[in-house]
From TrEMBL:
Transmembrane feature ranges: 40-60, 72-94, 159-177, 189-210, 271-299, 311-333, 339-358
Pro residues: bias regions: 15-27
UniProt xrefs under Gene3D superfamilies: Amino acid/polyamine transporter I (1.20.1740.10)
Name of the molecule in the record: Solute carrier family 7 member 10
Lineage summary: Eukaryota, Metazoa, Chordata, Craniata, Vertebrata
One of the Pfam families matching this protein, by short name: AA_permease_2
UniProt superkingdom: Eukaryota
């Protein structure tokens, strides 16, 4: 949302009352800071990672991976390698999550390390491209599977599928806005359901193998290419698989709500990633390169920063090499599509300079951007957490120098 923004607090722990801010007089709850409650334990942390990874992608991506890889054996190898690269990225995010203990995921890290413009462009592209399209695909896939038994002999009507998709999105949006506890409970239930369904598919696969139907898995047939894949084809195959693995970094969006993140963040990663890799190996990643690059920049700029989790530099380096490979050959293979994506991202530059960077703008423009920001916060039930003053001064990372809103939102 364009306009002046306020950064969340550093650690999310309750502390002394914040000093009064200019604006309306303090309300009844002004003696206590607004913070995110730590209600997410290890089990819920694991289900957040697994539940966000396992979704519609596993039912959509295998076709593209198999088409671009050219053989069953290479397709399975791409799935395994995708799980390994996901684990490397997750370890890098674990270090960032405890070094910069703020909820917000990629946006919080990129803004902290590279500044407001980079963080704004990241969130701009996410709001315009990444999140809407992925949520649309997930909700449409969900509605199609729900409606298929009702229309067993034909394709479900498009109108019915869209209405059910919108209803599902609205319901889940309301639940996530209302209660962290209920959101995690629903996440736990749906994660269990997805794992159960995939377990049934794996079980039926083993039944077929035990019955002798495994011709395509024989070494002599597994790498029998029906086409010779080029480097560009391999990059596209990895990108198709990345849609299925996307979501592994979602736990970093709720770091402030995680109970004992120093222990539970790496535990959740080591429990969830191998499990998901196992599932995708039997069923059939450009992703988060800028954020991983930020880890190297943070190591260089702030070498003395306290890091409860510190990965070997070879881990982010290997991830960045893989990310650069995907980026370069994706541009070579699909220059038009990648170019359009870059143009959409760059459209956020004038919005950032108008709403955030241009501080001496006319009062009418200032009021417009401020009202748009406040309206967006009220629409999405956003109230920024407030930490103790000394905590923000002594925290591991200081907030980026973005202007703040003059009129704070009411928290009651």
């Amino acid at each position: 949302m364009a306009g002046h923004t306020q950064q969340p607090s550093g650690r999310g722990k309750p502390g002394p009352a914040p000093s009064p801010s200019p604006g309306p007089g303090p309300g009844p709850g002004a003696s206590e800071p607004v913070t995110l409650k730590k209600e997410i334990g290890l089990v819920s942390a694991c289900t957040i990672i697994i539940g966000n990874i396992i979704g519609s992608g596993i039912f959509i991506s295998p076709k593209g991976v198999l088409e671009h890889s050219g053989s069953v054996g290479l397709a399975l190898f791409i799935w395994v390698l995708g799980g390994g690269v996901t684990a490397l990225g997750s370890l890098c995010y674990a270090e960032l999550g405890v070094a910069i203990p703020k909820s917000g995921g990629d946006y919080a890290y990129v803004t902290e390390i590279f500044g407001g413009l980079a963080g704004f462009l990241l969130l701009w592209s996410a709001v315009l491209i990444m999140y809407p399209t992925s949520l649309a695909v997930i909700s449409m896939t969900f509605s199609n599977y729900i409606l298929q038994p009702v229309f067993p002999n034909c394709i479900p009507p498009a109108a019915a599928s869209r209405v059910l998709s919108m209803a599902c999105l609205m319901l889940l949006t309301w639940v996530n806005s209302s209660s962290v506890r209920w959101a995690t409970r629903i996440q736990d239930i749906f994660t269990g359901g997805k794992l159960l369904a995939l377990s049934l598919i794996i079980g039926m696969g083993f039944v077929q193998i035990f019955q002798g139907h495994f011709e395509e898995l024989r070494p002599s047939n597994a790498f029998d290419f029906w086409m010779t894949p080029s480097v560009g084809h391999l990059a596209l195959a990895f990108l198709q698989g990345s849609f299925a693995f996307s979501g592994w970094n979602f736990l970093n969006y709720v770091t402030e709500e995680l109970v004992d993140p120093r222990k539970n963040l790496p535990r959740a990663i080591f429990i969830s990633i191998p499990l998901v890799t196992f599932v995708y190996t039997f069923i059939n990643y450009l992703c988060y390169g800028v954020t991983i690059l930020g880890l190297l920049v943070l190591r260089w700029r702030r070498p003395a920063l306290h890091r409860p989790i510190k990965v070997n530099l070879l881990v982010p380096a290997a991830y960045l090499v893989f990310w650069a490979f995907l980026l370069i050959f994706s541009f070579i293979s699909e220059p038009m599509v990648c170019g359009i994506g870059v143009i959409i991202i760059l459209t956020g530059v004038p919005i950032f300079f108008l709403g955030v960077f241009w501080r001496s703008k006319p009062k009418c423009v200032h009021r417009l951007t401020e009202s748009m920001t406040r309206w967006g916060q009220e629409l999405c039930f956003v109230v920024y957490p407030q930490g103790a003053p000394e905590e923000e001064e002594n925290g591991p990372c200081q907030p980026s120098p973005l202007p703040s809103v003059d009129k704070p939102l009411k928290t009651q």
